[in-house]
Amino acid sequence: MFWLLSGVLGTTCVAQPTGGRTGLGFLQMPADARQAALGSRHFTLSGSEATLFIQNPALLDSAKSKNLALSIMPYLADTRLVNVAYTQAFKKIKGVWGGGLQYLDYGTLTQTDDLGNPIGEFRASDYALSVGYGNTIQNITIGGSLKMVGSSLESYRLWGLALDWGAVFKHPRRDLTAGFVVKNLGVLRQNYAGHDAPPLPFDVRVGVTFKPEYMPLRFSLTAHHLNAFDQVYNDPALFFDFDNNGNRVPRKIPVPEKLLRHLTVGAEILIHPKCRLMVGYDHLVRQELQLQERVGLSGISFGGWLKIKRFEFSYGRSQLLTGLGVSTFGMNVSLQK
Q1: CA nearest 34: which of 69, 76, 79?
Q2: Nearest Cα to 221, choosing from 172, 179, 270, 254?
Q3: Distance from C-alpha of 161 to C-alpha of 147, rounded to nearest angstrom
Q4: Distance CA 83, CA 32 (A)
């Protein structure tokens, strides 16, 4: 499928760099408040939220048919991320289909001339329109989704196609889900001003979600960015050592630290079948965004989930650095009779 996309778009595929050197970084942001509360990268979560398929199309199983979900994240500098998804199963077609929209609105910006004088206003946004399908065979669900992705900046445009695909195994008797997902496999065809388009934020993940039999806790563990081992941004102006001659040399990062930056953990506290509390930790976020003089709660997230009849409400708070965090609000409604 990847090479088919490449042929259709007429673009040579290149290796996918990481660490802020890709385009459309919003594709890595959580699509649901529960995901945000648990650490944003988990893709094996159980539940009926339609937006879960945006994180992993293999979560399109029969439990999610006829669900409509909406999540809103007021992001940095008055930007706003909105995710909408709907899932549907059809009687004569096996499996479950899903459709979703991810939209990051940058709002209205001031346009200036070469001297910095205001001459007008313009808008900017990023988007991804997804269509996904999942089919369950015994205890394994396999799914894939095709996404049209793009960005608009005044009169400039960027667009392309991307593919997500994965599989999850659900234990027939225990509360255990394990799987993998390949995200944002594709290419960008057109860049804003005609230069070479940046690569997409390609990501390969494996993960597990499980509940010990006699504990009111459900744990999630996800290993992300398995396609690129070194996820460290080692700023030479801040992190350096000295050699025997007194010259600056880049700081060496030990292998265990590099491994930890691939891990995200989360836990759900099962207070009641219709009420949960959640907490998560992302080591990469903590190490990359913490302030030198004060670590604070960087990389830690938390939230809650509440079900009232057909409606599910969720809230997630992700702390980026000291004094700066983002909240995500989510709602899912079942349209089943």
Answers
A1: 69
A2: 179
A3: 6
A4: 8
Answer for the pair 45, 220: CB distance below 8 angstroms, yes or no: yes
Nearest by Cα to 292 from 235, 232, 229: 235
Dump pLDDT digits (tens) for 61-96. 876 789 999 999 999 888 999 999 999 998 888 899
Please answer whether residues 246 and 266 qualify as being in contact, where contact means their C-beta atoms are separated by less than 8 angstroms: no
The H or E element spanning position 226 is: none
Q: How confident is the model at residue 6 (pLDDT cuts 50, 70, 90)?
A: very low
Q: Which of 18, 30, 94, 107 is nearest to 317 (CA)?
A: 30
Q: Structure tokens of 88? A: 């549907």
Question: Over the stretch 201-233, which tens digit does the pLDDT of each residue have?
Answer: 999 999 999 999 999 999 999 999 999 888 877
Residues 6+ apart with CB under 8 A from 51: 31, 32, 69, 70, 71, 83, 84, 85, 100, 330, 332
Write the CB contacts of 29 (distance below 8 Å, at least 6 apart in sequence).
40, 73, 81, 102, 104
Q: Using alpha carbons, select from 75, 163, 85 the residue that is nearest to residue 126.
A: 75
The rounded distance, in Å, linking the Cα atoms of 100 and 304 is: 23
Q: Token pair of 197, please?
A: 């388009």
Contact predicate 322/330, CB 8 Å:
no
Dihedral (Cα; 309, 60, 84, 160), 10-degree rounding: 180
